[in-house]
Records
---
Amino acid sequence: HFPRMSISTTQGKAARSYYQVIERFYQTLADGTRLPLTRVRLTPETGRTHQLRIHCQYIGHPILGCDLYGGLLLSGTEHTPRLMLHACELHFIHPISEQPMDIYLPSPF
């Protein structure tokens, strides 16, 4: 099932993420169904492949629009236009200039 990854306590590499609930709300669908949603701030401490997607699925709250880890399973989520994951902040050292880079871009959703 590449590129799907999993959690393995015996063979996996350590991965740590932090989350903070920002807002809880409901999206009313065309049929009147109310889809419960939560906006969160996710902060990965490590950088494993699909880390944030897997951690959210593991705690029972998959990222909306995630086709690999359950983010399209609830009724009404099949119309989600994209993966609802957005990097609002990036911090790194530029590989050529060696200058610190601090990039901020608010979430479009």
---
Amino acid sequence: MRMLLTPAFTSGKMKSIFVLMEKCSKQLNIYLHEAVGQNPVVEVTNVFARFTMDVIATSAFGVETDSINNENCQFFTTVGSLLKTTKARFFRRFLVNFFPTLVKFLPVQLIPPDVTDLLTNSVRQSVVHREKNNIKRSDFLNVLIESKKYNGENLEKSTSVSKPSKGLTIEQMTAQAFVFFIAGYTTDTSVMSFCLYELSIHADIQEALYQNIQEAVEKHNGAITYESLQDMPYLDQVVNETLRLYGSGQIIIRTCTERYNIPNTNIHVEKGVRVIISFLSLHHDPVYFPDPDEFRPERFTPEKVKERHPFVFLPFGEGPRNCIGRNFGMLQIKIGLATVISNFKVDLSPEQEVPIKIDTRSIVVTPANPVLLRFTPRKMNGSLI
């Protein structure tokens, strides 16, 4: 499956899919200007959640949601609620992770039927429409459709969830699109929220980032484009430092494939043993990152990066099983942040708690409470970037 999906995340594909992200970023910009005109304090967690939902819905499911302008968007309210932390959901995840055999005999469902139905029907309708009208689209769903492994079932009538004799069923295509959603929705929303929170505290860093964005934009016809984002090295540093401080995952679990002796010890890891790697600890280790609790983007200058071991910074994992959607996630985060910082100055609001609290029940690092920041529009010669 990884071999099948890898072509969807190449640099060439990302450049094509940027068109979809760009449309969502323009909607984000317009929405923020209208919202700030009424109230300068913005709940950025909610705004970025809707922006992320719009990007993933159009890229993975082929659905135009515009949830950022539609508070009652079914896709957002139904699918987005799935990842909200509740005691019952936390308990179900605990059972599935630690007692998988027991769960087989219990009526435990991680995915509610209404979510499954909505996503399956969305994918089915998108595929039917594209096949009927011979539509090609530069997105994740198109990779699944065009794959030689797709079994070409009668999509309008099929309700089967059984194993196909060949290729992918609609249900399997939906499952891959759903993994895309699970991996990117909460994580990217949280990273952008944490990043703006830190920038609102560190005005000097925010100004330096603004200048870096402006220089890149001016070199590329005054717009945030795929090419201009590649010319924003300081934005990369800011995002990486946010990932270091607030990386969405906390551990990586891998299975040892051959007997291994841990250097300078008499400890052996036997083949087949599951190994838990805490990159949360690595990212906050003062040996590699002095004063680890401070927000310092300069840690990620090319010179500083070369001084460190390459595997002490693992926000997306490393090796053959690293995060397949890394390029997509970084591109979405960068266009979201660049859109905001190029158009607004962001400060802490009186309501925002400092230091920010982390939700201890969430499976990824997320703010415990909404992030509330004050937005001040920047004057950009009367136009919006």
---
Amino acid sequence: MSARWNAVLEASAPIRVGSVQRAVGLSVDVVGLECAVGDVLRIAHATSARAASFPADSVVATDPTAHTLVEVVAVDQGVARCMPLTGTAGLSQGDAVLHTGGPLLVPSGPGLLGRVLDGLGRPIDGKGPLTRVTYMPLMNEVPHPLTRARISRPLATSVRVLDTLITLGRGQRMGLFAGSGVGKSTLLSMIARGTDAAVSVVALVGERGREVREFIDDDLGPEGLARSVVVVATSDQPALVRVRSAFVATAIASQFRSSGTDSVLMMDSLTRVAMAQREIGLSVGEPPATRGYPPSTFAILAQLLEQAGNGEHGSVTGIYTVLVDGDDHNEPVADAARSILDGHVVLDRSLAVKGHFPAVDALASISRVASKVLGDDYRHAALQLRRFMAARAEVQDLLDVGAYVQGVNPEADAAIALHSEISAFLRQSVTQVTGFDEAWVTARQIVASLENHTHKDNVDSGGISV
């Protein structure tokens, strides 16, 4: 009886309605509601009389044509400063505002596989409503550092240069650093199709609208989409939606990890998340710091990246593209990301213009966990191949002007003689998938040929090398 009575009391309780005090730029000020940072509010357009017709349910059932969703980003003396999550057309001073009951909720569960969601976790693929999912808060707790399993197993990507020279581990966080148009998104699609992780979660943050369909249909393909979840927030979306889309994708991947699944989280791009956060921070009055980025930008990068990694059982391997401004790899976002990530892959524009794809500069790239996930023989082969490639790179200027003299450096001589084999190994077409073991067999064969060539040169010179 008491349960029914409590339900009657709850249903008959008055609904507190706030109002829009001001809407300037990217911010909306709301008064008359008790709310906390992160809460989602719903604004009815035109008149406060419409507030009574609001369904006071969760954010998921929103009709974006009749209402505007906003999220509280700051509170000050009874005023809640909000940022829009949906379009603000028709918003005016005095519009009625209702509390949705809490923060943004995102879906999780096996029913997400093969689906395409918007930045708030709502389906946009025309396949109907989500089924076999549960809803959870957007912000999950970061796994405790002492309960995280150690990174001890490699993650196969089916990209030869990554699997051998820059080996990834399950639970690692890796950055793909490059300027615009060098092939970051294409490399990401190769990993999505070829990875041996059970689930792929792809976040397209601030992407061009025309490229979303191309990525899903051409790069990912039906087979890749079947075991993936794609979260999309195009460049025309509000800044807060672009930031939230990154956290939505991370929360979905984290939920798969909680169920003991090995998942891969691929985000394109981390830089656009930082740029969106810059818009938000400056709009709410934060002071600009390095290159106009407010302090919250770098704090949110750490908060986002630390959610990836190993849990007690499952794992989230994070792969994030970082768009370096003007090909400057020391610009603020790239520098901050590199300090948090567990390794970086550098894509070189000079390789891309030569038609060398993926345009990975293997000598400038590093995986900080490669030594922990590879056996001694694998590590030796990778180090030897890197050593020979570095020897050739040291004499590249002499080769360009025709001043190099053979016999001075046997390792460089071997790398020059087998340059076509090494280059063919490092190049790979977009549709080609190479198994982890197959890639290592080829790498070992190349290393054996290089060592044999060096040994032959030493014998021919009487065992003396200058």
